[in-house]
Amino acid sequence: DLFAAVEPILPSLQEDGIVVWVLGSGPYPPGVLALQELLDAASEELEPEDVWQPEDMNETCLYIFTSGTTGLPKAARVSHLKSIMCLSFYELVGASSRDVVYLALPLYHMAGSLLGIVGCIGIGATCVLKEKFSASQFWDDCRAEGVTVFQYIGELCRYLVNQPPRPGEREHGLRLAVGSGLRPDVWRSFLQRFGAIRIVETYGMTEGNVTLFNYTG
């Protein structure tokens, strides 16, 4: 969807040795790697372990987009070790393979991709992906999909609290909300309005090595 924004500067990117990968059927200019064709042609069998296993778990696994707290937005290095540690995120907050996790966070940040997607893989839970968060559709989505866990950033909870009251907004199976940046006043309003949902507030930085969990509520 975003290739048109990159195409005008493609020659300068290629001069700098930057390779552009893109999903979708194309056609694309020479030098652009169309991933869909490669995925369709790829074998279902795993390569031998020594091909894909990193020699050092502290080597770079991927670069993740950060919001730029210390300057402009930038790509932060994430190691194989940190990626694997994210497998245990939902287990740490009390979720299990029986849960259905509602995820509407952008997948170019660590919260959505590594804590959210990788966290669901780690416990074998079902992940419901919402392309764009909608406060007016949220509770209907929860009922329709059997959602039990919601991963938030604080603003999403504020959007829900600021919605006009609607019938049935306490009729849901949501039991756990986990995320970052929930203000105390919104926290109280959220519980008073939507029922006895356990909230686990967390804080961590993509570039950091310390994470905080509020287990006590």
UniProtKB/TrEMBL annotation:
Signal peptide residues on this chain, from the entry's feature table: none
UniProt keyword annotations, A-Z: Ligase, Lipid metabolism, Membrane, Transmembrane, Transmembrane helix
Gene Ontology CC, one term: endoplasmic reticulum membrane
A Pfam family it matches: AMP-binding
Single annotated GO MF: long-chain fatty acid-CoA ligase activity
Gene3D superfamilies xref list: N-terminal domain of ligase-like
Family from the record: Belongs to the ATP-dependent AMP-binding enzyme family.
Name of the featured protein: Long-chain-fatty-acid--CoA ligase
